[in-house]
Structures are given as structure tokens and as C-alpha cells.
Amino acid sequence: MKATIMTITLCGRKPITDAGRKHQPTSIPQWVDTVCLFRKLGRQQYNTCQHWWGCHGGGLDAANALALADRIDAALAAGRLDSLLAKAIAFLQGVDIRAVPLPTYTNPCRHMMESVLPFLRNCGGFDIFDTLAQPRVRPNLHGGR
Cα–Cα distance between 116 and 118 in angstroms, integer? Predict the structure, then answer.
């Protein structure tokens, strides 16, 4: 029996470029980190999606995806990203952040955020699927949009 590793895939609704077609974080823990940062940086955008954890087609429209990308860019430029990531992840894991070396703890998440930016800017909105829910042929989930 072959094991399936659970991952999350973000599928662009109306991709502008190839970068906006698909973004696939490598694992469920990485998705948890991603969603925590989305929530911390863009609460207004985060609140427009009700299915971050259901992984069966929820997502953001184009305007909210772009706004979220702008918020992530601003946090990167201001040097706030590492601190926000560490706090969000430590809260989830019940870790005393003062006991964790910040650069070691957040570098993979920083890379993940930098890699999701081109997708958010070029996806035209996105839907969220887990590996078990991904259709072979993507259905029209939005009534002809």
C-alpha cells in the first residue's frame, strides 16, 4: 500500500501568468504556518474565506489575494515578518518564543512567504484543495466566472 502525503494546493481562479496557476506548500504543518501568517497580516482578507481548514474549494477573490500580497510585502520590507511568524507559530505550538532562536525558527516560513507572493499577485483569486480533495479536472466552482 502506497502512502499519500497530505499537502495543500492553491489553484488560481483566473491566472494572469504561469506563476498564478498553482502554488503547493509542501505539507500540512507548512499550511498551518501559512494560514497563521495570513491571519496575522491580513485579518480583513483572512475573514473573507470561511474554508481555510476545510480545503475543499474555499479561497480568496482576486482583490483580496492582491491585498494580502501587499500586506506580506510591507511586512517583509519593514522587517516585521520574522517576528510575526515566530509569535503566530509559537502561539499555536504553545512554545515560549523567548526560548527559541528567532532566525532558525522562522527562515523556512520566510522562504514560504516569499514563494507565495508571485502566486498571490498573479492568481486572479484562488481556491484551496487538499491532496485528497483535488479533482483531476478542476470543476467550475464559481458559476461560470
Answer: 6
The residues that bridge with 35 in the sheet, in sequence order, are: none
Tens digits of residue pLDDT in 85-122? 667 666 666 655 455 444 444 455 667 777 889 999 99
Taking a C-beta distance cutoff of 8 angstroms, is the pair 7, 25 a contact? yes
Nine cell digits for residue 49: 474565506
What one-character DSSP code corresponds to residue 98?
G
Provide the whole-model pTM. Answer: 0.73
- Residue with the three cell numbers 483580496: 64
Measured CA to CA, the distance from residue 91 to residue 23 in angstroms comes to 26
CA atoms lying within 13 Å on the CB side of residue 139: 10
Cα–Cα dist 97/90, whole Å? 6
10/57 Cα distance (integer angstroms): 9
